[in-house]
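Input/output pair, single chain:
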Amino acid sequence: MLLRGLFWGAPLPQASDPSHSIQQNCSDVQLTGRLLADARRFDDACSALVAVEWIDAVRRDGRTELQLRPCPDPPRQGWRVRVRGPLKRPAAGVHPLLPGPAERLAARGSWSQLRATSIEVLNRPWTPIADLRRQVADRLQAAAGPERGGLLAALVLGSAQVQLPDELRQAFRVAGLSHALAASGFHLSVLLGAALAVGRCLGRSLRLALAALALLIFLLCAGAQPSVVRAVLMGATALLIRESGERSRGFGVLLLTLSLMLLVHPAWARSIGFQLSAAATTGLILTGPGLERWWAECLPTRLGWLAPALAVPLAAMSWTLPLQLLHFGSAPLYALLANLLAAPLLAPLTLSAMGLALASLLLPAAALPLLAWPVAQLAALLIALVSWISHWPSSAHGCGVAGARLAAMAVDWLGALAADGVAAHAVGCGGAGMRSAGRWCGGGSAKPAALAAGPPSGPWRTRQYLS
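Output:
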């Protein structure tokens, strides 16, 4: 099914799609529909994806991108609107590695754009979950500032739910840390770990209920994105296996999760975020333990604690590098070092941001700046680190040809590591010897692997934003 989604042609508009209502003379049409998400602002303009219901009194079923300029009051998720303006086809990219609006929108199931000359709001339904997301994001940004507060909100809600400054988003992308802003398994592992730590002294039923509540809160906060759904399904499955007393085999859980996701939503197979998330998780499961043992044997004993910190980002990056080169033509040059330097900050910052998000819902807005001050300083430190790395020589160019050569040179080594990982999962034993480690380092004892609970998810999603 994954191969079908990847190679069996691109998605095409259905017979009732709004794109079939495009006029040759670009005359105005009247469109009625419902916003699928809050409009995103860009200078004095904004845009949003609309589920179309009617076009000029003709029933339509599909999506179109609504563009408003000026946009003093951006429309919000769930609003039902009637707009008037010319309906057109989005412009195609000039090169496969430089996608334009057409490619960006096609990935989201839309093949048309409407630049509104007038808009009328027909209905503003009650959207409690979206309202809570906005309240969390607005209060955190008001308490800690647009950059620091935006970062804290993104660590809780994901960058898809938060409007971040372009400079901040670009700095994280260039440094190879975009995955920190995208809701993924890492953020879920922090929340789930805290829930299990709190429920350690509780009975099994209460502990499972607390963990299930953490999974549900994460899903509601971040939305049903592919990386979020994958993380929640994997976390729930692994948790049930763990609590039943059986041993959880990560690769089997991953295959089950991906199969369920593609059965429910086959179009996710063409999502770049889904592909990167699946590849990164596979790398962590199959290659991560072997890489950790290899680093543990190669590093001096006093630096052995660095083994998992180096193994986790390297395993994920090695498996996602071919996809990055395929989709974007380059990859962040200093991503490994950036992940190593940022790792000590991300976990405590994410947990603190989640605590602040809860406080923003329970406490008066006036009390939040005082609570947010120490967390904001930690966020400022991470922002300064990312900004510093993004200005290193050639960081903005990434590695293109060099990355391709690196990927080719790593095939044999990663194949050996993956083979060891599969063998370990097949026998249910994580302590299988790693043949490649012996060849590279000359033998030595293998230390137990500590595999991270979630991979970087969709690290470089440059196609998710407006052109």
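The two ends are 31 Å apart (CA to CA). Residues 5-9, 406-414, 421-467 have pLDDT under 50 and may be disordered.
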